[in-house]
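Task card 7
Instruction: Convert sequence to structure tokens.
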Amino acid sequence: MKKEKTIEELVIREEERIEKKDQGVSAAKRESLKVPVILLGALVYAVGMNCFLRPLKLYSGGLMGFAQLIQDLLARAGFNFGGFNISGILYYLMNVPGILLAVKKMRRRFIVKTIIAITAIMILLSVVPIPSAPVLDDTMANTMIAGLICGSGIGMILWMGACDGGMNIIGMLVIATRGKGSVGQFGLCANIILYTIMLFLFDIPTVIYSLIYSVFNSIAADRIHTQNISSQVMVITKLQDTKAMEVEVMSRLHRGMTEINGSGIFTGDSVKIFMIFVSKYEVNRLKGILRSHDPQAFIVETEGVRIDGHFLKKLT
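Output:
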């Protein structure tokens, strides 16, 4: 009698089949499709910075805030840049150490896309014009809009598996190592330290509005960076043989599953309940796999769950 293959053996076999199937598709080609979104994110960020934040004489957080600060201090010292915004160039140079550190710990595709993102930000910050006066009359409205626009641009870049540099690249390195936290939260903590220092250099309203900008920036970036949002998916299915579904989920998503046997109180039918933890970025792929095996499956998603234990965060 032929021995039935175990789930582990089936998963390994399916992974090998998927890998063989994907060999004909260039990884570089797949990643190149993400570049337009990265460039769009860089443009959105540059528009938020130059059109909404800079006219208010406010400061971004992290390395970009330091780049703005250095440019303004040089201007006060008498250096004339002819109206040219050099904060993007300064930001680019300040990111070199972070990129070199990331080369040792992050994937090559992440490094390449990050360099593209930072280069695009540098160029666009230099060419997008800065209005002489704020777009809106209300300072608070400008500040919040600037934070949401810039955060959305950063979130788009992170969503494509790249990074805009600065404190975010450090945050991604820490998360990849420790598996906890979020890019926006890490950046916000670093910005609180930065703005505390700025209290000794500028007036209090400038620091407060700059901090408000960072809060909205972090919120927007974290909402779009779906790889960093953990979700719990509960699946109830009446399928008696779920082995094929289990194998496909584990081989394609590389996520574990917990199975619970139960029964319907009203019908008395036996059911299987699966608990799966994934990132929000993976939820739609997971649902597609589940529906292909059981179109009638009952699926419940809980977004933003806190997980304490071994859970791989796939940020790139």
